[in-house]
Amino acid sequence: MTGRAMDPLPAAAVGATAEAEADEEADPPAADLPTPQAIEPQAIVQQAPAPSRMQMPQGNPLLLSHTLQELLARDTVQVELIPEKKGLFLKHVEYEVSSQRFKSSVYRRYNDFVVFQEMLLHKFPYRMVPALPPKRMLGADREFIEARRRALKRFVNLVARHPLFSEDVVLKLFLSFSGSDVQNKLKESAQCVGDEFMNCKLATRAKDFLPADIQAQFAISRELIRNIYNSFHKLRDRAERIASRAIDNAADLLIFGKELSAIGSDTTPLPSWAALNSSTWGSLKQALKGLSVEFALLADKAAQQGKQEENDVVEKLNLFLDLLQSYKDLCERHEKGVLHKHQRALHKYSLMKRQMMSATAQNREPESVEQLESRIVEQENAIQTMELRNYFSLYCLHQETQLIHVYLPLTSHILRAFVNSQIQGHKEMSKVWNDLRPKLSCLFAGPHSALTPPCSPPEDGLCPH
C-alpha cells in the first residue's frame, strides 16, 4: 500500500523493462471496479455533487453509530417460492419477494437477483455486497431449490438492512417495481450515475479521516474476521447436525409407533398350545395398538424442534456467515482491484519517465517529446485518482468492519434461540412421555390377571418374573 500522493517510486519499478509496459497496456482492467479517469480531483467534486443520502453524521464521518436492533428494524423481506411455470423448453422458478418497509409484493426470477447484485457492485464497489447462491441450470431438485430460496432471502435481507444500500433507489426498484422489465430498470438507475466514489463529497478527503495505522488495523481486522468466520462455520455445521438428528429422531419415533400398531393389529390366530395365554396376548395387542398415537405425537414434537432449529439457529448462523463472507470478498476486491491498479499505474508511470529521460538524452523531435510529456501528465492524474480511490476504499473498509462488529451481538440471539428450542422441545416431549407411562400398566399382567408394575431393569435390561 502506498503512502501519500506521489510517493517516491520503488527501485523495482524504475528498473522495469520496456516489455513490461506492453504487458501493462494489454492487461484488461478489473471487471469489478470502475476504470478511473485521468481528471483532477477538484473536477471530481464539481462534476458529481453528492446526493444527501450519501452524507454521514456530523462529527467524525468515519465512525458509525448503528445498533443491531436498528439494522434489523430497517426491513424484513420474505422470499417464497411460487408454483413452477412451464416455458417453451424449460421450467423456471419464480419467487414472491415481499417487503415490510415498502409494503410491496413482487415476483422475481433468479436472473433478476443477478442483475440486482451486479448493479450494487457497480455503484458500491467498496462495500460488502453479499454473494448469490449458484444458478444450477439443469437437475435442480427440490432440496437445492429450497436451499437457494433461503440463500436469496438472506441475501436480500442483508442488502435491505445495509445503511447505504437501504437508502438507494436500486433497492427500492427491486423490492417494489411491478413492471415486466425490472432488469432494464435496475440497469438504467445504476448506470446513469457513477459509483460511490464519484457521488461522495468526502471521497477526495477520505485519507484525512483514516487513522495513521490504518494498514495495521486492516490486517488485524482481516485476520480476526477470518478466525470468526472459521469458528462460526464449524458452529453452523454442528447446528445442522443437531437439527438433522431431531428430524431423524422424529422419523424413527413415527416408525416405532407404527410397528407397535402393526403388532396390535395382527390377526394371526394363536396355536392351541398357547390358548391358555390368549386373553393376555389379546390385552397386550390392544394396548400396543393404542400406543401409536403417543408415538406419532412424539414424532411431531421432535420434527417441530428440528424445523425450529433449522429456521432460528441454522439460518441465523448462515446469515452471519454470508455477511462475513461478503467482508472477505470485499478485502479481496480491495487488494486485487483498486490497490493492484494503483501499483500497476505507478509501474507504468516509472516506465514513461524513463522513456522521457531517454528521449531527452537522444534529442528527439520536440513533437515526440511533447506527446510523451502529455502522456506523463495524464498518467499522473490517473495515479492521483487511483490513490484517492485507494484511500476511499480503505475508508469504506473501515466502516464495513464496524458493521461486522455491529452484527456480532447476533451471536446471543442465536444462542438464546438454540437454548429455548432445546428447553421447549424437551419439555413438550417429556410431557408426552409422562402421559404415556400410565398406559403401559396393562402391558404388565401377572398371575391371575393381576397387574404387575414395571420394575427397574437390571444390567442385562431384562425384568425377572
UniProtKB/TrEMBL annotation:
The answer to whether UniProt assigns keyword Magnesium to this entry is no
Cross-referenced SUPFAM superfamilies, in alphabetical order? Answer: PX domain (SSF64268)
InterPro entries given for it? AH/BAR_dom_sf (IPR027267), PX_dom (IPR001683), PX_dom_sf (IPR036871), SNX8/Mvp1 (IPR028662), SNX8/Mvp1_PX (IPR035704), Snx8_BAR_dom (IPR045734)
| Record lineage | Eukaryota, Metazoa, Chordata, Craniata, Vertebrata
Q: Where would you find the membrane-spanning parts of this chain?
A: none
- According to its UniProt entry, what is the function of this protein? May be involved in several stages of intracellular trafficking. May play a role in intracellular protein transport from early endosomes to the trans-Golgi network.
What family does the database annotate? Belongs to the sorting nexin family.
* Name of the protein this chain belongs to: Sorting nexin-8
**Natural source organism:** Pongo abelii (Sumatran orangutan)
